[in-house]
Structures are given as structure tokens and as C-alpha cells.
Amino acid sequence: MKVSDFNFDLPEELIAQFPPENRTDSRLLKVFREPNAFEDTSFSSILDDIRKGDLVILNDTKVLPARLFGKKDTGGKLEILLERITGPFEFLCQIRASRAPKIGQSIVIDGDDSAELTVIGREGSFFRIQASIPSTLFEWLEHVGHMPLPPYIERGDELSDQNRYQTVFAKEPGAVAAPTAGLHYDEDLLDKIRNKGAIIKTVTLHVGAGTYQPVRVESINEHQMHSEAIEVSQEVCDAVIKTKESGGKIIAVGTTVVRSLESAALKSSSTLIEPYVGDTDIFIYPGYEFRIVDMLQTNFHLPESTLLMLVSAFSGYDRIMAAYNHAIENRYRFFSYGDAMLLEKAKI
User: Fold this and answer.
1) Which of 11, 74, 264, 289 has the most CB atoms around its CB within 10 Å?
2) In a domain, 151, yes or no
3) DSSP label at 230?
């Protein structure tokens, strides 16, 4: 398949610039095999499709205040977006500037004139930075950093984004983009899921800035995915195996959870799934055979994106493209702060 097969025309006004007033106020488009139709409903109705014995898996990554503004020692202004923390005082990042900084050049960050960053190398399109700061990187970012809103949100970050561009179950710091499927849940909805007799577990995938990078090849099977850090625990693996054995459904909240579980399954040599801690660059597109997930709750994704390819693999290309056309016709809100879909896995 070609990248252009995953293109669609999206009116700009459907790109959500702000979250809904309450997390569960978003709409939900249900896309199931039977009946052969789409159901337009509210997000809280996801409870109707979660039953006793099901396993709901969330991504507990926490978004860092990963956008920094500053200037080079020559005076030129720049913007930094962290990709990954690689050491106590080192990180990889993207840098936007009129002229890219050179190796050895110093950078001063707005909000902390005492801190000094030094460009110490390059890794592809990323810069490797060493930071001379008076605290840990995590503490320093909380002091000077901005929430890294996606490029299609055409406004600066606001105080409210510190809360709303973060899931209520965020725990493990390391992401530079939110696992947006999880933004629709509040504590009350999570309690209602538990009260139905479903089990909730978490995996960790630290979403990198590479998630916004376009696919630059024509044939999708030539694309090389960016790498992201994941952790799938023994506890999660045991819960997956037990749920499968008892006939329950595995419900993934977000494509990051799908990629984590499928990566751990692919690494397993003797059982359905085994614990895994490390990097994954798994690329899921139509033709992929899913091993773990039965249902997927996700947001609407960018045209020609790897995430749109993943959901097309999960529910079927024709069904997903029809669902997106339905969503546009019915004025759903798209992308990170937008509405959601609940997908059933296509039959092989």
C-alpha cells in the first residue's frame, strides 16, 4: 500500500484546539463488525462494552514539560523539543532555529539564565544536549519547561494544559506527547469500569516527538519507525494470559498500548506474552496479525500517519476510511483534544 492511500481531507475547523469542559464530555464513534454501521454516542457509553472479566490496559506515561525557549550564545532565538532523556544531565531533542546550532555551541534557556546547555553531538535529525543545571533534569523542566502541545494546536500552552494534556493515571515521567486516548477518562469513570468487574492494568510507553514525523516514503513497507521506550510487566502479562483463558476481552486504551503489548508478544518465545523492558520500533500496518488486543479505544489520527495505518490494520482499511468520512460528515473533533473511537478487531 502507498502512503497516499491513507490521505483524507479534513476541514481545519474540526481540529480541536482545546479539550472539552470535562474529560468524559467527548463523543465516541463505535466501529464494530456487526451490525455493519457506525454508532454515534457519548464517551461514557464505553461502559456498555466493558464487561466483568475484561482487561482494560492504559499507558501510564507522564508528559514532561518538554518544550523550551531560549537563544544561542550568538543571540539567535530557538525552540527545543525534547525527544528523550538519555542521562542524568543529557537529552536528545529537536531544535527549531533560523540556523542550526553547531557542536560545542552554548544555549541559554528563557526563565533560567544560570543554566547552560551545550550541543555535544548529533543523532540523525536530533541534537544531543548536555545540561549544566542546579537540579535534576526532571525538576528543572518543571521550572522552565512548557507543555509540548502538538503542532496542529495553533496556540501557546496555557496553565490548564498542565492538567488536561496529562491523563489522570499518569505516573512514569518520560513522554513528550500525551497518550491521547487516555485523556477521556476521569477517576469516576475508572471506578465505574472496576465496579463492572473489569480489571485495569497499565503499561508504559514514553511517546516521543517522532510520533509527529511524516512518512517520507511512497510505499509504507519501506518506512522505518522511530524508537520509543516501553515497559510491560510480569503482572500485565499474567493478567493478559488469564483474561484470554477465561474468555474476556483485552481492551487497549490507545495505539501506544497496542504497540507495547504486541512488542512484548513478538519478543516472547515460549508463551503468549512475556515481560519486556527496552525500546520498540514496531510498525503496524494492514496485513499485520494481532496477537493480544480484541478492542481498541483511540482518538482520530492525522492523514497519512503511522497511527492511521495501525487502526486500519486493526479494524480493516475500508471500514476505517469509511468511519473517518462518517466522522467528518458528522462534525467530530479530531486529534489530541478531540473525540474518540471504539474499534473491534477485524476477523482474519
Assistant:
1) 264
2) no
3) E
Residue 157 burial (CB count, 10 A): 16
Half-sphere exposure of 153 (CA within 13 A, CB side): 22
Each residue's pLDDT tens digit, 211-258? 777 788 889 888 888 889 999 999 999 999 999 999 999 999 999 999
Domain containing 31 equals 3-63+163-344
Q: Which helix (H) or strand (E) holds 162?
A: helix 161-164
Torsion over CA: 254, 257, 261, 266 (sign)? positive
- 88: cell is 542524568
> pTM (2 decimals)?
0.94
CB 86, CB 92: distance < 8 Å: yes
Domains: count for the chain? 2
Q: pLDDT, tens digit, for every residue of 247-300?
A: 999 999 999 999 999 999 999 988 899 999 999 999 999 999 999 999 999 999
Q: Domain boundary at 86, 109, 144, which? A: 144
